[in-house]
Amino acid sequence: MNQYTRMIVVLVAISLAAGALLAFSYEVTNPKIQEQAQQALEQAVMKVIPGAEKMTTVEKEGMTLYIGTDNQGNKKGIAFKTTGSGFSGPIEIMVGYNPKEGKLTGIEILSMSETPGLGARIKEPAFTDQFKGKSVKDDFIPKKDVKVITGATISPAAVSKAIKSSLATVTKIYPVGGDF
Amino acid sequence: MVKDFVNGLWGENPIFRAVIGICSALAVTTAGQNGIAMGLALTFVLTCSSILVSILKNIIPSKVRIPCYIIVIATFTTIVDLFMKAYFPALYQVMGIFIPLIVVNCIVLWRAEGFASKMSLIRSIADALGMGLGYAWAITLISIVREILGSGTLFGIHIMGANFTHWVIMLLPPGAFLVMGILVGIMNMITRKPVKNTHCH
After folding, report:
1. SS3 A74
2. Do A116 and B78 touch (CB under 8 A)?
3. Which helix (DSSP H) or strand (DSSP E) does residue A79 occupy?
4. Spatial distance between the Cα atoms of B82 and B80, rounded to a whole number of angstroms
5. What is the rounded CA–CA span in Å between residue A92 and residue B94?
6. Does the structure show a pLDDT above 60 at B201?
7. Hey, which of A129, B64, B86, B160 has its CA 20 to 30 A from A179?
8. Is B67 on the interface with A (CB under 8 A)?
9. Contact B137/B40 with Cβ under 8 angstroms?
10. Are A95 and A163 in contact (CB under 8 A)?
């Protein structure tokens, strides 16, 4: 075998072996990964809709909405994901909304990469709790009707803006006072 | 063999001596458990890669050796990545992007090219374990210092009083450089040989 054929044969063999090994580990781990992602999603939905025990997923006008129900099947609220652009990357937020009352039922920061100790404090209940019971007709303007965090201007503004802009779409699908 | 193992732990410690592969070492070291997890992930990839490279050293033609090493390293890194995502999702959330980056961590290629491709299997394993654990203890130490000063906790347990002011800078990138620099300095102080007065002219 001359050296060129040898090079090709060795590279192909190593690549094939690597591919097979990866396919195998993917098969083993994939169900578990999907399950973990689903669990994390459900946990976030339950957190932003108080009283919800189960959830159903609906797709409407390009948005994925999660409807939370309690054990008797009573609808407790709607949850949806929205993304804001923070100081150092996207901020993923889960928002809970109750159309009957026209109020938010809570928010949860799913992922963010803001500055620790400053912007990262948007994750703390001191900041997120203020959105509980907030009317969706509010302006969501920092320092006006949203409490801000000292030393962090951009992160709270990004959260408020992301919620407000996604609410514009969601309240069209589920108008305030209407059923859901 | 023992010498090869200790070499990585101390003499040629990748972080404090060779100062190689410090990108991840600076980025993930904000909490003690991140340091341990990252260290173990790298040790696994490094050991598996070194074993394979050492076994295949006479089969791999020298002209295509680098692509071969990279395929081997990338395969093991992806396996760690998948298993971590499946079984340690909380940890994966914190250090997600730094796990795939093990592929381009110079320590792994450095040991594959510089050691495993020339030495016997046993010596390669000893070297890889030494280097991996050397990396692990080094970044765990950096993590512990940063976690105590930055968050007042040690492996998530509060150890500083309630009135402790958090040194936020320790959790930011500059804090990583400060801690690492000071630790490298301390390490040099410990190992520095006394200068002999040679009377040179």
Report:
1. coil
2. no
3. strand A75-85
4. 6
5. 15
6. no
7. A129
8. yes
9. no
10. yes
